[in-house]
Every structure is written in structure tokens, then in C-alpha cells.
TrEMBL record:
InterPro entries: DUF1329. It comes from the Bacteria. It comes from Denitromonas halophila. This is DUF1329 domain-containing protein. CDD domains: LolA_like. It holds the Pfam family DUF1329.
Length: 459
């Protein structure tokens, strides 16, 4: 890398520090990434070459198409969170390198980004700490704080719209492994969610009439294995983020819908899983039940923000590697993300929480969470989550979301770093019985997101 390249990286570091000191967390070194997107359709102009090219960043030692493994991971240690670095260095994890994506419309659903641009500058916090428009009404769509000025704005924006679609049904397979790589549990499930406010794609928008005081409806149901087949849960999230969601469950053994307490969110729904309700999208709780949000770092990062969809398998299933049985990690493609915002938060609304804080790495361009570490009450690393995302497009193969190729998550790792147990989850095309991925389909509401629906799914 040239002397000018070194100066570029030094300038970027100074820019991150100066912007953070001023309370300016917007993405970009040479001005706003969102302004560059508006002008040119790309965020490349907002960053020096050294932050949009892994070849430039590593002075030619790594390039797109290379694989990061234990032999060369030291070259990118400063671009990794500590857990992934340890996994690569000691557990055989590998990461494939791809070019940096500079088109934000490949990193989030276009309807969500267009709403974010259309509604820039219209969001604020009300006296209770909730996000509202300048007129005091619930949020109207897209990212309310695409150029945040605080850690709270980052978390609030993401919590309001996890998957960035108005409605989605993700169908998935889960594998729960012990430290030796033995698969102890397998699950096949569906996860449905629908925004009732801040709708950007589905009619009616921006609000679903009669539900303006509700943020989202979300359910999960299981079709395998047989002993939990038919189990289903429904969460109804108040718009007020100081309140816990209402949680209803249908358990086939009782043949009725029951209401469950929802303030105990630090435990798995099923045996063996290392993914808790609190972990969903790294923001599985109302954002006002956490506090002491603070920025603890900024800079470039290796994130799995593209290339996560495997079109080679008819059911979109992914390949694995690493660990004692070559099945510990999903094959994962990462790229140089020019800038992440690293935020710590504490579970202020949960006096008996087994975690003392969590640390989340957000892509500064989209405010999408790329990785999360939680810490136990002694302050030691406890559990780790990292996700992979993708536009579902590969050559001539593509999955459509109305007018656009579908964008979504593709794989998740959730591991207990203290016990070595690992949960792997992948989004697939269909489940046994015929349930299949759906996006921005109004029928998701009646089919999956009412108490009658979860009872029907359980029969």
C-alpha cells in the first residue's frame, strides 16, 4: 500500500474519532455516505480506497476470493471481533473474502431504504423516550435515524424494524451441537413477523388501522421434531418500548392457548438451543428495557453482508466446516465493511438477567447488526452471535420480493463461549409439510399472527 494509502487510513481513524467526539455517528469519512448514495447511487465516494478494498487495506496480502484461516488470520485481527478471531485461530473456522459492496440497495430492501431517504429528518424521541414523527405520531417507515447522533438512536432504529420488511415468514432449520460436534437437537421452524406501524411496502401504510399502538406481531412455530411439533408462540409488541411484549403460546399437550410471562427473556424456547428471545436480531427486547447505551468503538470490520444465499441447493441449505466433526460453522462469505459502530448496552429492566451487558457491532451504513457478544455477571464473555445476510440473487437464479430480489438473513451462529455449545440456524426455502418463505404477503397476518392462527398451526 502506498504512502497515500497509509495517510488514508490515518485520516479515516481521525475522522471516526472526531465525529464520535462531536456525537456524529453518520457513516462516511469524506462526508455522508447517505448523501453520496443520494447523489451517485453508491457510498464509495464517502470512503478512502483503503476502506472499500481488502487488497488495499492489507497491502496486497489478501484479495477478494482468498480464504481467511488460521494461517493468515493475523493479517486481519484488527478487523474481527475477539470470538471469531479465536474460532478461526483455534477451531478451524474459515471465512471467504468477497469485494466490498458499495450499493446500499444490495444491503437492505430497496423499499426500506427509499422510505429512509424520503423521511430523513422527520424522527425524534418523545417525552417517554419512544420514536415519533415531528408531529408526535408513531414512526412512518424506513430508518428513523439513518445518520444517528447517539448509540440509543442506533438501537432504536434497528429495534423498530428487525428484518426491514413489512411482513415476512422465515422458515429455518436449527442444529444444536455440543463442544465435540455431536448434534444433540434438530428443529424445523417458522418465524413470522409483521409491522403494524412504519409500513413502507404493504397497504395500508404507514399504519395498520386499529393497531397504531402496536409495533409488531411476531410468532414462531415448530414442525420438527415430533415431540414439539405444533408448539407455537405469538408475541404482540407494544409501540411503547418501556413495556414488555405480550406472549401467548400453544402447547399441543394442553390443547389450548396460554399466556406466558415475558420479562424472562434470557432462556431458550427449546432444549439445546443457545439462542434466547433476547438475542433476536441482537435487539430482541424493547429498547427502553435496556440502558446505558454507549459507543465503544468505530472502524472497519469484516462482515457477512452479502453472498450468504446458496442457490446450489434446492432448499437453500448451506455447507459446514470446522470443529472436531467438520460441522461446527457454516461456510461464510465476508467482505470489508468500511465502518462499524460498536455499542455496549446494559439490561436495566431485568434485575435477574444472567448477562451484565452486550456489545454489538453495527454496520454504520445500514445500522444492521453483524455480531454480538454478551457478558456474564462477572464481566466475562458468555455468549456470541453472528449472522450472514444476502440478496437472494446468484447469476440467473433469484428469489423476488415483489419488484426486487429478496434481501434477508441467511445463516446464524449462536454459541456459548464458556461451554463450547453451538447453535447453527439457516433460512431455507420450505419445511416438511409445505410451509415456505414468504415476504410482504398480507396473508401472513391471519395465517400466523393471531391466537387463532397459532392454535390452528398446532393441530
Amino acid at each position: 500500500m502506498s504512502i497515500s494509502g497509509c495517510r488514508g487510513r490515518a485520516h479515516a481513524r481521525r475522522s471516526f474519532l472526531a465525529n464520535s467526539a462531536r456525537g456524529l455517528l453518520r457513516a462516511g469519512v469524506f462526508g455522508s455516505a447517505w448523501s453520496a448514495l443520494w447523489r451517485t447511487g453508491s457510498i464509495a465516494a464517502a470512503y478512502p480506497d483503503e476502506l472499500v478494498s481488502i487488497d488495499e487495506y492489507t497491502r496486497g496480502k489478501l484479495s477478494s476470493g482468498d480464504v481467511i484461516d488460521r494461517d493468515n488470520v493475523g493479517l486481519v485481527k484488527d478487523l474481527l471481533d475477539p470470538v471469531r478471531y479465536h474460532q478461526i485461530a483455534t477451531q478451524g473456522r474459515r471465512l471467504s473474502l468477497a469485494p466490498t459492496t458499495t450499493d446500499l440497495f444490495k444491503l437492505n430492501p430497496p423499499d426500506y431504504l427509499e422510505a429512509s431517504l424520503r423521511h430523513r429528518g422527520q424522527a425524534r424521541f418523545d417525552a417517554s423516550g419512544n420514536v415519533v414523527t415531528r408531529d408526535g405520531t408513531p414512526w412512518i417507515g424506513g430508518n428513523p435515524f439513518p445518520e444517528p447522533t447517539s448509540a440509543l438512536e442506533v438501537f432504536a432504529a434497528h429495534t423498530l424494524s428487525w428484518g426491514r420488511h413489512d411482513a415476512a415468514l422465515y422458515v429455518s432449520r436449527e442444529y444444536d451441537l455440543d463442544a465435540d460436534g455431536t448434534v444433540l437437537y434438530q428443529y424445523a421452524s417458522g418465524w413470522a413477523e409483521m409491522a403494524t406501524v412504519a409500513r413502507a411496502s404493504l397497504d395500508p401504510h404507514p399504519y395498520l388501522p386499529g393497531l397504531e399502538d402496536t409495533l409488531r406481531l411476531q410468532s414462531v412455530f415448530f414442525v420438527e421434531p415430533g415431540d414439539i411439533q405444533g408448539t407455537a408462540y405469538l408475541s404482540i409488541w407494544p409501540y411503547d418500548q418501556s413495556r414488555f411484549p405480550e406472549l401467548y403460546g400453544y402447547l399441543p399437550a394442553f390443547k389450548r392457548v396460554r399466556r406466558f410471562p415475558t420479562n424472562q427473556r434470557f432462556e431458550p424456547l427449546n432444549p439445546g438451543s443457545e439462542l434466547y428471545l433476547s438475542d433476536a436480531w441482537a435487539a430482541g427486547d424493547p429498547f427502553l428495557t435496556w440502558g446505558n447505551y454507549r459507543v465503544v468503538g468505530r472502524g472497519p470490520f469484516l462482515g457477512a453482508v452479502s453472498g450468504g444465499w446458496d442457490a446450489r441447493h434446492p432448499n437453500w441449505e448451506h455447507r459446514t466446516h470446522g470443529g472436531p466433526k467438520d460441522n461446527r460453522f457454516w461456510d461464510t462469505t465476508v467482505e470489508l465493511v468500511p465502518e462499524v459502530i460498536v455499542i455496549d448496552a446494559e439490561p436495566t429492566g431485568y434485575p435477574r438477567a444472567p448477562v451484565s451487558r452486550k456489545r454489538v457491532w453495527f454496520d454504520a451504513r445500514t445500522l444492521l447488526p453483524l455480531a454480538m457478544t454478551s457478558y456474564d455477571r462477572r464481566g466475562e464473555p458468555f455468549r456470541f452471535f453472528d449472522g450472514a445476510y444476502s440478496v437472494y440473487e446468484d447469476g440467473d437464479a433469484r428469489v423476488m420480493d415483489g419488484r426486487h430480489p429478496y434481501w434477508s438473513w441467511s445463516t446464524v451462529h449462536a454459541c456459548n463461549v464458556q461451554t463450547g455449545r453451538m447453535t447453527r440456524i439457516e433460512q431455507v426455502r420450505t419445511l416438511p409439510g409445505g410451509e415456505h418463505m414468504r415476504v410482504n404477503d398480507a396473508a401472513i397476518l391471519e395465517r400466523y399472527l393471531t391466537t387463532a392462527a397459532i392454535q390452528r398451526l398446532g393441530r
